[in-house]
Amino acid sequence: AGELTLAAVDLGASSGRVMLARVGPGRLDLTEVHRFPNRPVRTAGTLQWDVLGLYAGVLDGLRAAGREGDVDGIGIDSWAVDVGLLDADGALLGNPVHYRDARHETAVADVHAVVPPDELYRVNGLQHLPFNTLFQLAAMRGTARFAAARQALLVPDLLAYWLTGARVAEVTNASTTGLLDATTRQWAPGLLDRLDLPRHLLPALVQPGEEIGRLTADVRAETGLGDVPVVAVGSHDTASAVVGVPARGDRFAYVSCGTWSLVGVELEKPVLSEAGRAAGFTNELGVDGTVRYLHNVMGLWLLQESLRTWAAHGLPADLADLLAAAARVPAFTAVVDVDDPRFLPPGDVPARIAQVCAETGQTPPQSQAETVRCIVDSLALAYRRTVRSAEELSGREVDVVHLVGGGARNALLCQLTADACGRPVLAGPVEAAALGNALVQARALGALEGGLGEMRRLLRTTQQLVEYRPAGSAAAWDAAEARIAR
Ligand code: LFR
């Protein structure tokens, strides 16, 4: 097998990237060819994704990729759950609504009245998040837009549709909708019927590695690329990031740390226990039939929103400076439960932290550095709690915690995660999602052989990783946990 040049499109909540990967036996290099901001827009009270802006960024990136040489394949991954609705002509009916929009939640009680939460979990195995696609669609029932809708496409599938003309639902991302049966791994028609969601909304499923289609003539003309296949990858960014975890064997936990921190283990089969539901564990599908048994921890969002709030008030908002200051203030002056749903919507996170501290009888952080320290301590504490629960609930033992994604650059967070979990943390790669995207393409197109183990071996031999050894006492973390016990 030779070497291939692959474009990996990776869209995050705050920016989109087009990366060029050169992959072959013993080789895996990644370079960024284009990066563009992802700015959600609120109109008439609804928070939405500027999906045409994102698509334009993808086209710019593909054009830039083409200038570097021949492109052999394209893969797309992004955040999950959000969908664009298409009408009978295949035209987009408005912008996909952002998962942080408050309206989705209005349907939760209605859905649960028809399918109680425990029953829902036995079918879809999904942690309750108020924005899971089924709640979003249920909240739209009765609207003109919904009446006109013939199909719902998840964001990466929508972009792939515009590139190729083919409409599919890639299965790792489909598993985040709440409408996929966790046991059969097919759409759950019974669930759709009971919730009055037309079955035709959901396109045929495809597996990572299948070709979705080839660039249309229009797109070829616009990008300068040739007859390039768009290959289904783990189109849920977290699925691609878990491919990009450079683990050896199966005794590992991961923290996929970006805007969210997805914390869990990789399994062969779903765990649909009531205890897992109560602990907020999800059974999302991974590449090669794996299960991502994980919990959504609020993640770097808390830092991002704090910086945004401070910048708006004219306060210092340089992350590196604030983290350096946070490393110098004492640990555990205040900790919060980062999964408090009040942290989900955009807004003044520092004020919300102060409020939660007051409610739990703690002195709120008195400075920006203390607020940042509170966030980082609280994230590490949540990782500790979640890794432990994942082990207990799944029976999988964990020797090492892999921290991948942008958070791998945050040395304070990595060290505190090692201390909190009492396990070594292997940090990196930062671009795990783009790497996982490229690896799945490379195998589909014949440049690599084998399973996740071979892909991960290639990651270990080519990517820069940093090890953090655990230090300090478990008792301090236990005491911190007791302060926020729910
Ligand atoms: C991470 C992520 C999470 C998903 C959240 C919302 O980027 O994809 O896995 O729960 O975004 O879609």
Number of strands: 19
| Major sheet summary line | 7 strands, mixed
Could you say which small molecules are bound to this protein?
A: beta-L-fructofuranose
Walk across the major sheet and give the strand order.
15-16-14-13-17-18-19
- Can you tell me the overall shape? globular
Structural class: alpha+beta
Distance between the termini: 54 Å
Low-confidence stretches: none
Count helical runs.
19
- Report the portion of residues in β strands: 15-25%
Q: What is the typical, i.e. mean, pLDDT?
A: 97
Q: Mind telling me the C-alpha Rg?
A: 22 Å
Q: How would you characterize this protein structure?
A:
The chain has 486 residues and is α+β, with helices and mostly antiparallel strands. It has 19 helices and 19 strands. The strands form six sheets. A seven-stranded mixed β-sheet has the order 15-16-14-13-17-18-19, with helices on both faces. A four-stranded mixed β-sheet has the order 3-2-1-6, with helices on both faces. Strand 13 and strand 14 form a beta hairpin. The relative contact order is 0.13. Bound molecules: beta-L-fructofuranose. Beta-L-fructofuranose binds next to helix 10.
Break the fold down into its secondary structure elements and pairings.
Blueprint: E1 4-11, E2 15-24, E3 27-37, E4 41-43, E5 46-48, H1 51-67, E6 73-78, E7 83-86, H2 108-114, H3 117-124, H4 133-140, H5 144-148, E8 151-154, H6 155-164, E9 169-170, H7 171-174, H8 189-194, E10 205-206, E11 211-214, H9 217-223, E12 229-231, H10 237-243, E13 252-257, E14 261-267, H11 274-278, E15 282-285, E16 291-297, H12 301-312, H13 319-328, H14 349-359, H15 368-394, E17 400-404, H16 411-421, E18 425-427, H17 432-444, H18 452-462, E19 466-468, H19 474-484
Parallel strand pairs: 1-6, 9-10, 13-17, 17-18
Antiparallel strand pairs: 1-2, 2-3, 4-5, 7-8, 11-12, 13-14, 14-16, 15-16, 18-19
Helix pairs in contact: 10-17, 13-15, 15-16
